[in-house]
Specification:
single chain; mainly beta; Jelly Rolls
């Protein structure tokens, strides 16, 4: 059976079309439908899993860290209604008042003055009315942004009905007056969404003299997949500027490519993270089909390359467009693992977790899942049931996993789950995840140790574990107790 599993998985990894066919066959064979999984991890000795609070998605409103950059102040003022044969113009929101757009015939419009030229950054405090990323048909609401009458981008409001902060780039703006227009796009939104609400709109400019200017000026424009309003949604970019510019994209869980069970074991996450575009010297490259590094020959808007997500595992083409043109915010690459950005923006854990459940990729606590999903490895537990461990991988050509010992249990759990290909071979800071049994509490964990792919303990070199945490009922990272000597996020 194990050899059969390896054959199936090796075939699917090499062909982007076979996996969707296998998944479709699996669904026809009854591989399960959506049921919200119940978290099993207790975060305190006296709190059982069943007693953990379950706050509804509309109460989830984490903060967004703003890009660290020097901004030039831009003043804005209420605009009078302008003649428009199609749209009704709404004034800028007054103190504490919101602007509601519930049809394509309404727009928000404001006059702006830029005190300097540079790269524009737009910050919106907004919510999608009657939206919930956890519920099919109500995933998000979508807005289109126009600058001086020209289409600039779409903004996907994926964080439900709670007012949240969304930051996007605007591209090059010149000194002087501008007109910003925002329009609700019901045809691009989930069918159950009923509009958008704007609470605050602000713009800043990053000048050419600023240290972050180059990173913003060359950030790629990404055309997302046609289903980006509900799945595989691009969220933000990070940039590494140590040797040129290298941009990495963060998306919700991918529909193709590496299966979620393997993502958790090999990367300690279910979100999709991979590099998009790079500039080294005079050469510009991007990551194309089958993860090939290709020279960029596509179009630019000013200095921004234009790429389109062209595969189900979110690889790119430098040709074509889609209904969703995105100018994602850019943040510095984390100094440690790429996954540290998820700790900085913990709302990504929730988006990923509820998307998995909505798409039928999670199973109930204590269940093993259908035989088909066991073979393919496409179904996982609730993300709140996993212990995520980050460690410093010390050696080349050595594949490692992490094993966990629980109090009053003779068996030991590991990130490999009996599959040797889930051992990690890359050096540096890496993450993995171990699924915990129902009712596990932090104080039940008595030992964590590195192991080789065959399950033997690894003692040849010291392995430093730098982080260990789980997600609480609201998908927020919670560190292991200090007594175990492993820091949290």
């Amino acid at each position: 059976m194990y050899q059969f599993v390896k054959i199936i998985r090796s075939i699917t990894r090499g062909n982007a079309m076979i996996m969707p066919m296998l998944m479709l066959l699996g669904s026809l064979l009854g591989c399960g439908s959506y049921r919200e999984a119940t978290p099993v991890l207790s975060l305190a000795a006296s709190v059982s899993a069943a007693a953990l609070p379950r706050r509804s998605p509309q109460h989830y409103a984490p903060d967004v860290t703003q890009l660290d950059q020097t901004a030039v102040k831009i003043t804005s003022s209420s605009s009078q209604p302008l003649p428009d044969p199609v749209a009704t113009t709404l004034p800028l929101a007054d103190q504490g008042e919101a602007v509601i757009l519930n049809s394509a015939e309404q727009v928000f419009r404001s006059n702006l003055y830029c005190a300097a030229s540079g790269e524009g950054l737009l910050t919106l405090t907004a919510r999608g009315r009657d939206t919930d990323w956890a519920i099919a048909g109500r995933e998000s609401a979508v807005m289109s942004i126009y600058l001086d009458g020209q289409h600039n981008q779409e903004v996907i409001l994926y964080r439900g009905e709670t007012l949240a902060t969304y930051q996007v780039l605007l591209g090059a703006v010149h000194q002087g007056s501008h007109v910003l227009t925002i329009r609700y796009r019901p045809e691009l939104s989930a069918s159950g969404a009923s509009g958008v609400e704007l609470q605050q709109v602000s713009i800043a400019v990053c000048q050419a003299s600023d240290s972050n200017y180059a990173a913003l000026a060359h950030a790629p424009i990404i055309y997302a997949r046609p289903d980006a309003f509900s799945t595989d949604t691009p969220l933000f970019l990070t940039v590494d500027d140590t040797a040129g510019l290298r941009y990495t994209a963060y998306l919700t869980n991918e529909d193709g490519g590496t299966l979620t069970a393997d993502l958790l074991a090999l990367w300690g996450r279910a979100a999709d993270i991979d590099w998009v575009y790079a500039i080294t010297g005079q050469q510009a490259t991007y990551q194309g089909f089958l993860h090939r590094i290709l020279a960029f020959h596509g179009r630019y808007e000013d200095s921004h390359p234009i790429l389109r997500i062209s595969t189900r595992n979110n690889l790119y083409s430098d040709r074509g467009e889609s209904p969703y043109k995105l100018r994602l915010p850019v943040f510095p690459q984390p100094l440690g693992s790429r996954e540290e950005a998820l700790d900085r923006f913990p709302w990504v854990y929730r988006l990923t977790g509820v998307e998995l459940a909505r798409e039928g990729k999670t199973r109930q606590a204590g269940e093993t899942g259908s035989w088909w999903r066991q073979i393919i490895g496409s179904q996982v537990g609730d993300l709140r049931n996993y212990l995520i461990v980050e460690f410093e991988h010390p050696a080349s050509h050595t594949n490692l996993g992490i094993r966990l010992q629980l109090r009053n249990r003779s068996d030991r759990l590991s990130s490999l789950a009996g599959r040797t290909y889930r051992a990690i071979g890359r050096n540096g800071l890496v993450r993995t995840a171990i699924e915990l049994p129902n009712g596990t509490a932090f104080q039940d964990i008595v030992k964590l140790e590195p192991i080789l792919a065959d399950g033997r303990s690894f003692t040849a070199l010291p392995v430093i574990m730098t982080k260990a945490f789980a997600l609480d009922a609201e998908y927020r990272p919670v560190a292991l107790p200090a007594a175990l000597g492993i820091p949290g996020p």
